[in-house]
Design a protein that fits this description.
seven-stranded mixed beta sheet; six-stranded mixed beta sheet; binds zinc ion; hydrolase activity; Metallo-B-lactamas; MBL fold metallo-hydrolase
């Protein structure tokens, strides 16, 4: 399993357009980027590619990285930065299954797959496939399991990807706070690589109108309500016994001296599991 981190940033990305903060300036100087979230998973046994989330930066991500276009897609939730790149499917790919959860979201009155269906009904290339959380299914020769996480007010799903031949395992937290339910943690447990949502360091919680949540050992694991802090992401990695954890969905609000240190990911990182 070859994993390429196409997009490792939050919804405005780093650098953020027209932003001259120290972090965005440092990113420009270093020539690094954190575009909107997306991960490319290539199964070298079948030579098939799965795209996890369709970033609005999809076109640039595929120009910047030497990876094949996807044979199948999975959507974690309906926020702009994870879904709206699906329009790029037009004339780029044909008849691509787009896997997404089938549970109705009380907030929207439809499931993630229902929103994909409604929004992209006009595109023949997009074929929504309803998937039930906790029920493993096959995509690109890999076994995928969607699990609910906690990203209020919308439903959102983490994902376990296992190669049934080699036993390699990639887990993704999805956009989530630290309150990932125990049964979801069980499905994500013991990955070779965990991609964990972490938006800022916990000392920035004082600037969030709702502060921090999920305090452990005097530190907030959650920034506001929607995302983990870096501390929360790292702790989730330890909770799940991940061999390696990369923190993704990182914001430009991170102070520059903390923005490019381990284990924070940048675009283009590649892992072979
Ligand atoms: Zn900035
Ligand atoms: Zn989100
Ligand atoms: Zn997001």
């Amino acid at each position: 399993m070859e994993v390429t981190l196409l997009g490792t940033g939050d919804t405005t990305g780093t650098p953020t357009p027209d932003c001259s903060c120290d972090t965005c300036e440092a990113a420009r100087e270093r020539g690094v980027k954190r575009s909107r979230f997306s991960v490319h998973v290539h199964n070298e046994r079948t030579d098939e590619s799965l795209l996890v989330d369709a970033s609005p930066d999809l076109r640039h991500q595929f120009l910047a990285n030497d990876v094949p276009l996807p044979d199948e897609v999975l959507i974690s939730h309906i926020h702009f930065d994870h879904l709206d790149g699906l329009g790029n499917a037009y004339r780029l790919v044909s008849d691509v299954p787009v896997h997404a959860a089938d549970e109705t979201d009380p907030e929207t009155g439809e499931s993630v797959v229902g929103t994909v269906d409604r929004r992209y009904d006009y595109l023949d290339a997009v074929t929504p496939v309803p998937r039930t959380p906790f029920e493993p299914f096959e995509a690109c020769g890999l076994e995928l399991t969607l699990v609910p996480v906690d990203h209020p007010p919308l439903v959102c799903y983490g994902l376990a990807i296992e190669d049934p031949e080699t036993g390699a395992k990639l887990s993704l937290s999805g956009d989530t706070n630290y309150g990932v339910p125990e049964d979801s943690r069980e499905a994500l447990r013991d990955p070779d690589l965990l991609l964990a949502d972490g938006i800022v360091p916990e000392h920035l919680c004082e600037y969030h109108p709702l502060g921090g949540n999920h305090e452990v050992d005097g530190e907030f694991m959650t920034f506001g309500t929607k995302h983990m802090t870096f501390e929360g992401a790292r702790r989730l990695g330890r909770d799940l016994d991940a061999d390696e954890t990369r923190v993704v969905h990182v914001s430009h609000f991170v102070p520059a001296e903390e923005a490019f240190v381990e284990p924070l990911a940048v675009d283009g990182e590649r892992y072979v599991l």
